Amino acid sequence: MNASLFPNRRQFLATGxxxxxxxxxLADAHSTVNSQLSWLNSVQFGxxxxxxxxxxxxxxxxxxxxxxxxxxxxxxxxxxxxxxxxGISAADxxxxxxxxAAPFKIIAGAMQKxxxxxxxxxxxxxxxPADLIGKRIGMAVFKTPILRALCTLNHIDINQxxxxxxxxxxxxxxxxxxxxLLCWATDLPVAMTIKGIENITMLMADHGYxxxxxxxxxxxxxxxxxxxVTS
Length: 231
Prior knowledge:
Homodimer. By secondary structure, this protein is of the alpha/beta class. The protein has helices at 9-19, 46-54, 56-59, 76-81, 91-99, 144-153, 171-174, 188-194, 220-225, 227-230, and strands spanning 31-36, 62-67, 86-90, 104-109, 116-121, 136-139, 162-165, 180-184, 199-203, 213-219. The chain is globular.
């Protein structure tokens, strides 16, 4: 195919703007920005690493630094403070932040199905939300609203579940410190399977938790005044 017949988004914007006599919303030569990830470097951000290796950002005149997040560390403060131009979060977190007057907007979404799940071992499985009653669940404490939402959707009292603060590691489950983990389907269950540890996964999206995840956010000010970069 002739590449000129299929212009990229910036080329399209530039051509369209020129056609109506406007100034195209293009970034200045090599804009430098920070992008706040929602977790540690992992496979879920693979597209960004591939873009860096293949030079796609250079083609767009962007110098992007990916900033790792981690357990018990929310994404929104670096975006609000301006340390990061944009961040990766989830729709429910952003809705709660906006309700508290945070100046965010969601500008894109990467995942079609929410990846949060409950992982357990075959000897003590969690197959349905009701199985969580009386269990010890390992999770980062800032994810408590996620567990609460799942419980509310399935008429379960969250107080009947013991929350244990854990890091991004399957060890507490494997060693019996907890009965299950709240994690992503692309993360700890995969690590356990690679190690030959049989595990059971309950995808929360199959039990009513149908919320967009891996959503890109930026402040209203950045969208208004740095539109060439955020787009």
